[in-house]
Design brief:
CATH architecture of the largest domain: Orthogonal Bundle
CATH class of the largest domain: Mainly Alpha
Helix content: 40-55%
Structural class: mainly alpha
CATH topology of the largest domain: Lysozyme
Largest sheet: 3 strands, antiparallel
Number of domains: 2
Strand order of the largest sheet: 1-2-3
Number of helices: 15
């Protein structure tokens, strides 16, 4: 009897000193449970209400109070209705290039774009920038969230580190938010608005997006915006001179591919969810994959910002855990119960 009593006493003392030990033993065999899953139906361009509030806090210093629901506005004037005369032959040249030499790549890009446009375009519309800028991301990255360049640019918008940080993104050992299509699009919107405010012209803003605003500003000191495209020959890199007509060609084809003899077959496996479960930190994607029977490759595709496939040690400010994108039908199953906030 005394031996039994001493055993209980040791266990009680141990659990008081290390309360997590007994919990660990009991939870190791159970699946990783999310802390909170939003009960609010997804209806914002950014995700559920809880995630939208988090993004509002993150980007309010850059964008002010942005609308939770896409407002009804007059459509932004199309970028391809008034192409500068000096660019029209170049646009035709790039249309031909897309239809011939780049036809196979273009098809892959447009299929990928069709899957991600419902993520990016509503944000552009809600922030009142031309939705056609979506196709700038196509010529930058082919809509590949994991894309990187020799100049260390990354993500769908190919932002370099300094530009990304300047416009609200984080790059740490754990995350590269340039890869996140929602956060990187918000950062790109900040940059697009700044460029348009500086130049008052979307074509010049697109050129500055490629070359940097200083290059374009220096040239405009010597000419007018109307004469810029003729004057700039030989004065800017060929990459920058090609960038604007290439973007306009991509817009023309992307917004109406059938008119150019291009037929896109949708790929439902590329669908990108905007529903979030908030997991304790750190939690690994392989663990979530095992617990919920979701292919690991899918989890990595849906959460491209997680560099090492694991959530950071600390959750983002204002969120109960790290937001992990999962399909709505998975979140609504009994495996991921709704928890009241």
């Amino acid at each position: 009897m005394m031996k039994y009593f001493l055993t209980l006493l040791v266990l009680a003392v141990t659990s008081c000193q290390h309360p997590s030990l007994l919990q660990t033993a009991s939870t190791q065999t159970s699946r990783t449970q999310p802390l909170v899953v939003s009960r609010v139906p997804y209806h914002t361009p950014y995700g559920d209400d809880q995630y939208a509030n988090y993004l509002q806090h993150r980007f309010s210093r850059y964008l002010g109070t942005f609308p939770a629901v896409t407002p009804k506005r007059k459509p932004t004037p199309s970028l391809v209705t008034d192409i500068p005369p000096a660019l029209r032959p170049e646009v035709d040249k790039w249309i031909h290039w897309f239809k011939t030499k780049a036809n196979r790549s273009l098809h892959h890009w447009l299929v990928r774009g069709e899957a991600i446009e419902s993520t990016i375009i509503p944000i552009l519309e809600a922030q009142d920038v031309p939705r056609e800028l979506f196709y700038v991301a196509m010529i930058e990255s082919g809509f590949n969230n994991h894309a990187s360049s020799p100049r260390q640019a990354g993500g769908p918008w190919q932002l370099i580190g300094a530009t990304a940080r300047l416009h609200g993104l984080e790059m740490t050992h754990w995350v590269d938010e340039r890869r996140d299509p929602v956060k990187s699009t918000l950062a790109a919107v900040v940059y697009w608005k700044k460029l348009y405010q500086q130049f008052g012209n979307w074509y010049l803003a697109i050129a500055a997006y490629n070359s940097g605003p200083r290059t374009i500003q220096d040239l405009l000191r010597k000419t007018t915006p109307e004469k810029f495209w003729t004057y700039s020959k030989g004065k800017v890199k060929r990459e920058t001179r090609d960038f604007v007509p290439k973007a306009l060609a991509a817009i023309l084809i992307g917004t109406n591919p059938e008119a150019y003899g291009i037929h896109i077959k949708k790929d439902p496996t590329l669908a990108f969810p905007l529903h979030y479960a908030y997991f304790p930190t750190p939690t690994s994607l392989p663990q979530i994959s095992r617990d919920y029977g979701i292919p690991l490759a899918k989890l990595r595709y849906w959460n491209p910002e997680l560099i090492h496939g694991k959530t950071p040690p600390q959750p983002p400010f204002l969120l109960p855990g790290y937001p992990v994108r999962l399909p709505k039908h998975v979140i609504q199953t009994t495996a991921l119960p709704h928890i009241s906030r």
